[in-house]
Amino acid sequence: MLDAAREDLRSLEPGRPCAAELLLLIAQWVDVGYRDDSLLDTLLQKFTLEWKRKLSIDDYLRVRMAEAFHALYLEEVDSAIQIIDFVLKAEAEFADRHLVILAHFWKGRAHRKKGEYEAALQDIVQARQLAQTCDDCRILAAVIQIQECWLLFQRGSTKDALRLLAHAEGVLKLTDHHLALGNIESARGRIVRRSGEYAKALEHFERAVAIYSQGDPNHRNIARTLVNASHVKRLLALQLHRKIDAQARKQSQTKAGTPPKSSQTIQGNLRVRYQQLCNEAMLQLRRAKEIYSLHGHSSGLGAVLFNEGYLYLDRGEIDAAAVVAGDAYRIGVEKSDHILMARARILQASVENARVEEQLGEDVDTALHATEARTYCDEALGLARQTQNRRLLAAAYIACGMTAANEFFQDWETAKRCASEAADLIGAGENDHLLDELATLKSHIIQSSGIHDTLRGWSEGMVGDKTFQQINEEFAEIVIPKVWMREEKKISRVAECLSISPKKVRRILRNAGYLDVL
Asked: What is the DSSP letter of 405?
């Protein structure tokens, strides 16, 4: 219907009856997946300041809400929040409940984009509660619940998040609201990804792309889901890489000679699958870049570059990783996107640490790269603290720890402090790449700084600013792996020997960096 009326809509003049209502309706249709913002942009340009002065209060607020959505669509989130705040203050004098619901819904999403999760949740909950009191807002209430689910998940309330998703799906499953139904699958994929269930996450992402495509094969959310899927494929590839390295170490520890043919075949198959996953991830990112470019979505392009950078870094293409990381950071600056800026700085720190590890160039070059890494980490920490994204902050602390522990600085106390800060930020039940990176950092600290130095310091009362619980945890990470090795790597024996639960033994072993063996 909208397509058929498109040319008539383009000729709509602000003075026509119901013009402002129609303008806001078109904004809502774009929000639920209709085409792009070109029609809305054309119409908004007609509502000049002179015309807006002639409008009734109701119509003026509708036009302002359409402008707020357009700003949100263009990633100008501060402008969107500012406009909606004005509408909500003005609307307090009137009784258009639907407009208030919409205002809180869009404002909550704008706060979420900024990483202001508590403010976002407050607006989203208010929008959902108001929608549930309206007889004709059942569908809208379900759509709002999808946003609420993600914010609860950010808080660590995974069960509540999944319950809300199931309820929303029950309301929406008989509709053709492809965008909302795709969002449900996408959210499930991100939830199970964080628990480390990567294969299951990919299934959800694939279903999400199929659902989105029923509405628009080039919708921006398809690009976002492809980026998420490519990230998971990279994580699966890293797991394979660790297996390949573990087998290589095992072979090097056995008797000299050519490894058995079966072992060579396994190694070959693993390498082929590793390369396949990396190639698939890169192809998905290229497709995402095409879609984001079609819509001029800068932050989306930044996310693509950020993920490309890590794929390049994994393959040892350090210079290529540095280029795309710099491009991602510049996009973040242009959009005042603190989350993207922090992620780009973390990647840039990883690039510089890789250069230190490779010891490229003269000693003066190594010092320069190490110093650059530390500068990037400090900036990433500062940016992450401006958001309420605890996992982003944890990633920044891990990057700081890896920089402190690099070949140049070898600052083990700072590395330990950063590891401790990151561990406090990683929630219970989270079992994904962040925990892997933290375990790598802890393993590096223990192997390099020396267990005896740590124990000697404790015996002399040198505990720094650690709590007793932190010391207890660190001690467990020293003792339990040793007992595990002595007990022939049997978790049940360790649990019985030390009178602790097998679950805790597994957690400590994982945190201490014994992932390849487990």
From this structure: T
DSSP three-state, residue 133: coil
* DSSP tag of 55: S
Alpha-carbon dihedral of residues 423, 429, 434, 436, nearest 10 degrees? Answer: 90
* The residue to which tokens 């693993």 are assigned: 270
Give the amino acid at 117. Answer: Y
Which pLDDT score, from 0 to 100, does residue 361 have?
54
Sole residue written with tokens 């990683």: 426
Q: How far apart are CA 511 and CA 509, in angstroms?
A: 6
What does DSSP assign to residue 311? H
Predicted confidence at residue 513, as pLDDT, reads 60
Helices (H), 34-177: 38-46, 49-54, 57-73, 77-91, 97-113, 117-131, 138-155, 158-172
Question: What is d(CA 38, CA 252) in angstroms, rounded to the nearest whole number?
Answer: 62
Burial of 309 (0-12, 13-18, 19+ CB in 10 A): buried
| pLDDT digit string, tens, across residues 474-484 | 778 778 877 87
DSSP 279: H
Which domains are delineated in the chain? 6-193 (1.25.40.10), 297-420+437-445 (1.25.40.10), 450-518 (1.10.10)
State residue 259 phi and psi, 5-degree precision: -65, 155
Give backbone dihedrals phi and psi of 373, rounded to 5 degrees, phi first: -60, -45
- The reported pLDDT for the residue numbered 179 is 95
Tokens of 129: 């509660």
The angle subtended at Cα 407 by Cα 406 and Cα 412, nearest 5°, is: 55
Distance between CA atoms of residues 337 and 115, nearest Å: 9
Q: Which of the residues in the chain have pLDDT under 50?
A: 515-518
pLDDT of residue 518: 37
Run of H or E residues at 377 = helix 363-385
Token representation of residue 133:
């009191």
User: CA 480 → CA 441, 492, 504, 513, distances in Å?
Assistant: 18, 12, 10, 12
So what's the pLDDT on residue 515?
Answer: 40
